[in-house]
Amino acid sequence: MPRLLGVLLEDAPRTALDLFSGTSRVGHALKREGVLVHANDHNAYAYALASCYVAADARRWRLAATRLIDELNALPGTAGWFTETYAMRSRYLKPENAARAEAIRARIAALALEPALEAVALTSLIEACDRVDSTVGLQMAYLKTWAPRASQPLRLRLPELLDGEGSASCLDAREAVERHEADVAYLDPPYNQHSYLGNYHVWETLARGDEPEVYGVACKRADVRERGSAFNRRATMEGAFADVLSRVRAKRIVVSFNDEGYLTLPRLRELLATRGEVREIAVEHPRYIGHKLGVYNLRGEKVGTPGPARNREHLFVVECGAAGSRRARERSRHRAAAG
C-alpha cells in the first residue's frame, strides 16, 4: 500500500476514481490523504464497504454509528436460514456466531437506516464475521477443522471512519467510468478466472440480506454462476479492459495487474500506450496462502502440485497527454533538452 499510495499521490491529485474498489483499502487510504474519492464496484459487499470507508463522513456519522453498534452487539442470536446454510450445511462460522450475525443483519434491515449508517453497520458486521470465520481468507472453501479464531465470540467494532466527503457507486465499470472524471483513476480489475463474488459470497449475502439459492459443498450463491464478469473469461478479458480504458477521463491512469492474468503484459502495455506515456513498476509477492496448502479435488484428496511460490504485481502509470499532468510535460521538456 505505501508504494501504491506514493504512485497515486504523485502530482498531488485533488480527485480520484477507484474503479474496481473491492475492500476499499485504496480509496480509504486516499481519503485519509485529503483526496476526494469516488469508489465503484459491482458487488454489493464492496459497495457497502466503499459507502462506509469512502463516502461516509465521520463528522456526521461517528456518534450515531457508535450507538448503533452498541445496540447491535447486545442482541442475542436467532438461528434461521443464514445459520443453517453457513454453520450447518457448510462450516464457515460456528452456529452461535452465525446466529448472532443473523440476528444483527435482521435488526439492521428492520431499522430502515439512512444509507450511510446502514453501510457502516454492514461493514462492521462483515468484518466481525471475517474475524471469526474458518477459512484461509477466501470463501471458496472452509477448513476441515475449526480455526482457533472461530471459537471467539462475534463482536462488532466501529469501522475506521474518516472525516470528509466522498462517494460510492455499485455500477458496471464501463458505466461508472463514463459518469466520473478525476485527476487520477486507479484500475485494479479482475485478471483471471477467480471471481470476487465467488471468493466473498458470504459477504455478498450479508450485504444483500437475502436467502439465495446455493450450490456445492461451499454453499456458494447461485448468482456466482449467473453474474459472470467479462474480466473473468479469457476470451473477453482483453476487450472488456480495452473498452473501459478507452472511456477513462483522467489526467493520470494507474493500473495494477498480475503476471498470472489472461491479458499478457506485452499486450497490456500496448493498450495503455494508446492513452499516453507509460512507465512500469514491478513488485514481487508471495502467492496466496492456499498455494502452500496444495491442490485438492472436491473429495479433499491432494491431486496436484502448486505453481511458482511467488508472482509479480505490476503497476503501470499512464500520463494521458501533454495537457494531462505536470509530470508528462516535464518529461517532454527533458527529452527535448536531451535530444
Biggest sheet architecture: 7 strands, mixed
Structural class: alpha/beta
Q: How many domains make up the 3D coordinates? A: 1
Strand elements, count: 11
- Physical arrangement of strands within the biggest beta sheet: 3-2-1-4-7-11-8
The end-to-end distance, rounded to whole angstroms, is 36 Å
Shape: globular
Give the C-level CATH assignment.
Alpha Beta
Spans of at least 5 consecutive residues with low confidence: 322-329
Kindly state the percentage of residues in helix: 40-55%
Compute the CA-based radius of gyration: 21 Å
Mean pLDDT: 89
**Secondary-structure element string:** HEHEHHHHHEHEHHEEHHEHEHEEEH
Q: Can you tell me the CATH superfamily? A: Vaccinia Virus protein VP39
> Under the CATH scheme, which architecture would be assigned?
3-Layer(aba) Sandwich
* Count of individual helical segments: 15
Strand portion: 15-25%
